[in-house]
## 1
Amino acid sequence: MAPSRAKATTLPLLLAMIFGVLLCILAAPAQASSSSQPSPSADVDLICHTSNPDECYPRIFQPTDEFQTVREDQELPNGLHVRLNIWTGEKEAKINVPDEVDPSLEGLPVDQAVLVVDPQEPDAPPVPRGAPKYETVGKIKEPKPEYEAEPFFQAMKMLKSGDIDGGEVFDNALEGMEDLSHDIYYGLKITEDPAVLKGLFCLMADQGAPSADGITPRDQQAAAILAGALQNNPTALEKVINEWSKIMEFKCPQNDKPLSEGFYSSFMPSNTVTGDDAKQPAAKAKAKAGAINGLIKSDSIRAEFLKSAGMRNLLEVLVPEGKEWAAAQRKVGQLVLDTFLDEDMGAKLGQWPSTPRSTDVQCSTVEGQTNEGCWDYHVERIMKANKRDSGHWSKDLHDRLALARKNYKAPSGHQEL
C-alpha cells in the first residue's frame, strides 16, 4: 500500500476514537447525577388518587440522598435507610449510606435501635433543675369540631340539673355520652364535674331505673359511661378519687339513701332468670363489672371494695349457667386476674383471696354458693364446661387462684375447719 493511502485511512479512525473517548467522559457525570437523584420516567407505575396528574406519585418509592416522606400505599425497595418520625407518625426514607452518622444525634443516648429523646416543645426554655415532674397525661387538645358532641353535652346538662325524667330524650343523650366517654377528652369532662359523677353513680346503683323496649337500661348505660371514662385514663380516675367520699355520702333522689348503702349491692336480679330472659341482666352485670374494674385501679377504692364484700357480689355473676352469661363471666374473670392474681398485668399480690377455700359441699348449697371461699368451685365448674378451649380464661384463673390459696396464711388465732 502506498504511504499516502495509509495516512488517509488512519486519520478518520483516529478521529473516531478521540470522539468516542470524549463521549464517555461527558456521559459519566450525567450518569452519576441521575443515580443520586432519580426522577420518575414515563415508564414508572404511578398512583393517582385524583384526576390532577401533578398529584400522582410513583408506586415504588424513588429514593434520593435526602429523607423524603413515604406514602402509605407506596412500596419500598430493599436496602434503604428508613426512619419513623414519632411526632408526625410519617415514615421517611433515603438512599442508605453505610456507617453514616447523623450529626444531629451526636451525644444523645441510644437504647439498641431505639433513640431515647426527651420530647420538648419547639423553642421551649430548658427545664430548671428541681422542677416538678411534667405529667403528659391530661394535656389533651379538644377534639376537632366535626365530632358530633351535642348529645354528650345535653346529657351533661340533664345530669347536672337532675332533670333525668326526659324519657327518650334523656336515653338518647346517655347513648351519645357513652359513644364519646372512651375519648380521653370527654372522659375527663365527665369526671371533672362532681354533679355529673353523682348522677351517673345514682343511675348505676338504681336497678329499677325505667327503660323502654329497645333502649339500653339506664343503670347499664351509666355503668358503661363510667367504665369508658376510666379506661386508660388515670387523670379521670384521679378526679373520681378526689370526690369519692362525697360521692358515697350523696343521697340519690330515687331512694334518699347514701350511695354507699346501695353501690356495693348485688349486680344480679332478685329473681332467677334463664335463657333469653338472662340477656339483659347479663349485659348489666358486664357493664357494672367494667365500671368496678376501672374504679378499683385506685388503692383506696379497692380497699373499700374488698371491705364491703365486693368480691362476693362479683362471684354472683359466676353462679348462673348458660351461654347468655359467658361475656359477663369473662369480664369478671379478667378483672380478678388483672387486679389480684396476675402480676404481669399489674396485679398486687397478697390482697386477695383473704379467706381459705370452702368445701364443694358448702359451695353447692344456695346459702353458701357465694361465700368468698367458693370462687375456686365456680371457676372450676366453668373451666370443665369449656375444657375444649385450651385458652379459656377460667383455666388461667383456676391455676393462679390455686397458687394464691397455697400461699394463703390464715391470721393468727384463726382456726380452719
Note: The chain has a mean pLDDT of 80.
## 2
Amino acid sequence: MKHEEIRTVMVGIAALATTASCVVAGEDALADDWPGIASLQYAQGRSMMHECGATMISERWLLTAAHCVDEARIERNGTAAQYYRREDGMMQRLGPMRVAVGRTHLADDEDVKTYAVTALHIHPDYVPGEFERGSDIALLQIEAGYKGPYMRIDGLGFDAISLASDTYVSVAGYGNTEETSVAEGDLNARGRAVYAPSLRLQQASLPLLSLDACKAGLDAAIELHGLEQVYGDYSLGEHTVCAGGGEQDSCYGDSGGPLVVHDEYGEPIQVGIVSWGLGCARAGSPGVYTRAASYSDWISDITQLDEPSG
C-alpha cells in the first residue's frame, strides 16, 4: 500500500520499510491457503528485495498494482528490471525483477525458484505516480515453468460478486506488521539474502466499508495531515473497494496483493488489489483496493483468459 509520504522507490534495504507493505495486527498465514500468492522482487547482487505482492491468475500471468511496476522496464534481453526516478528526474536501475510464488516464508521455504518477468501491461487509464486517481492495476507475464495453483478473479469467467458493507474480507502479504517496522533479512536455501518487511506471510480479516464511510474516513485523514494538495483529487467508485479503518490493515509492501472473499466451499476469490491508504491501521482511516471485477474485460483482453459472463 502506498503511503502519503512515499512517492518514489528508494535504493537499498531501508526502502523496504516504506515502499513494501505487510499486514498490521494480522496472523501467520500459509501459502497453501492463498493460491498463487506471489512476491515481486528485484535483485541487487546476491540479495533479493521484496517490493510488492501479487497473485498468479494462470501459469503465465500475474496480477498486481500498477504503482508497483510503473517505473519498471523491459530491457534488451526481453526481461524486466526495476527502476526508480531520482529527485533530479533521472532513472536509476535497481535490478532485474523476479517473482517468487507460493512462499509461506520468503527465506525458509525449500523452493527457491523465481521467475523472470517478460511482459508488463499497465492499465491505460492509470496515471503514473497518482495511484489515488484509480486504475491501479497491472498484468505481468512471466517466463514458462510455473505449474502451481492460481487465484480465481472476481468477474473473470463468472458474474461479479455483490459486495455488501460490513462483509468481512481477507488480505495477505509480506509487508510491514507495524507502520514503522523495518525490513527483515535471512538467507534462503541457495545462500541468497532475502529482505522483506515480513519474511513470513501474514493475513488479516477486514470489514468492507460503504463508499460514503470510506470517503468520510479519507477526507478526515487528509485534512488531519494537511494533504489536500496531494490527495485532493483521489477517486472512489465502482472501480474501488474500501476496507478496514480499525486495528487490522494492509500496509507498506502489501501493495499489489490480494483482497479476497471465500465461497461456500471456503475457497478464496480475489475481489481487490491492495492499492493505497493514509498510514497503516490508523483509527478511522480505511484502505483502498482496486476492484478486480471492474477490470475483468481488460484482464481478459490482455491474457485471453475466460471472458466475463453476463
Note: Residues 13-303 form a domain with the Thrombin, subunit H fold (CATH 2.40.10.10).
## 3
Amino acid sequence: MATEAPATDDRARTERPPHVPADRVYEIDMYKPDGIETEGYLKSWKTLQDKDLPGLVWSPFNGGHWVATRGALISEIYKDPERFSSQVLFIPKAAGEAYSMVPSKMDPPEHRSYREVVDRGLNLRSIREREPQVRAIAVELLDSFAKRGHCDFGKDFSDEFPIRVFMAIADLPMADAPKLRAFASGMTRPGGNTPEEMAANLDRANKSFFDYVEVLIQERRGKGGTDIISLCIHSEIDGKPMPHQKLLGMISLLLLAGLDSVTNFMNMMMDFLARHPGTVRQLADNPADIKRAVEEMFRRFPLVAAARMIARDIELDGVELKAGEMVLLPTALSGLDERQNPDPWKLDVKRGRPAHSTFGEGPHRCAGLHLARLETTILLEEWIQRIPEFRAKAGSEPHYESGVVASVENIHLEWDVA
C-alpha cells in the first residue's frame, strides 16, 4: 500500500517500526496532503476514504504516526482517554510534547476540575446572555460593506467578527489581535522541515502566549473582573488557587481556541455558499431552518486534525499499537464518511442529526462549541437578511493550508446592489 514518492520529494521519513505491517504504510503528510493545491483541503483528505484504506494506516512523515481513516474509529478514539491519552495532542510528537496548554493536554480524572473552570465561562447560558453583543458586532461589520457590492470576506468580516467577540469576552484590546493570531498560527501550523524544527517553532509560539498571559495575570489578580480571564485567575482547584503554570496554560488555551478555528471555518463555509446559490436561497426562504443548518455546516466543513498518544500496548483494527505512539484524528474523515452520513458531500440543511467529530468528542469536546454555533447562526441570519444572493468573484479561488487547524484564505465575494 505504500505510495511512491516523487523523485524530487525530500521530506524526512521515519523508518517503519517492525510491528507495523508493510501493507498499512501510506504516505500522508498532515501538513501537506496530496492534492490540497488543486482539490482543496477536504478533498485532499477524503482521498484516503475513496481509496478504501483500512481504518488505521501508518504514515512515515512527521516522525511517523498512525492515521484513523474512518468516522466511527475517530469517534471511538476521541471517547476513550484510558487507551488514547491527551498528554500529547499534536503531531509530530516532538512538537506535541512542547505544547503545554490545559486542560486539553490532561486526562481524566485530573482534567475534570480544570474543565469545569472553562465551562463556567463558556456554558450555554453564559453564551446566550451574550447574543445581543455578538449580534451587534456582526451587524456593524456587515453594514460597513453590504452596500458596496463586494468584499474580501476574510479581511472585511471573518478576521474581525469571532476575534472581536472573543476579545470582548476576554476584555482584551483589539490592537493585540494580530500578534495573538500569529502566535496561534505558530501553534496550529508550525513551520519547519523536520520534527525538531517544528517542535522549536511550536515551543516558541507556546512561550509567546505564556509571556503575554503572564502580564494579564499580574494586572488582573485580585481585581474581581467578570471577563473569562479574570474568572480563571480567581478560580480554585480542589479548594486551592490554581497552580500558576496551569493557569498560564488555561488562559493561553482560551486565546488559542478563540482566535483561529472559527475564522477559517467561516471562510470555508462562505466560499461554498457563494458557489451554491440554491442552498442560500433555501435558507433565505426558510430562515427557521438556519439553526438546524448550522450543525450541518459544522459537519460539512471540519478543519481540525488533532492527535492522541497511545497510552498502553493494544490491538485495534487488526494491528498492534505501541504505548507512546501517536494516532492522528482528521475530523474531515468523520463528517465526510459515507458510513456515517449518506451522500456526505451534499450540504443538506434538513439532515437529521448529522454525525461528526468537528468539535471533538468525549471529555475533551470543545468548550467553545456554544459560542461557535451562536456566531455561525448570527452570521447566516444577518448576512442573508442583507445579502440574499451573492457569488464568488470570478477567477478567485480559496487558498488552503493544512495543519492541526487548517487555514482558508482568499475568499472574495460579490453581489448586485440595487
Note: The mean pLDDT is 93.
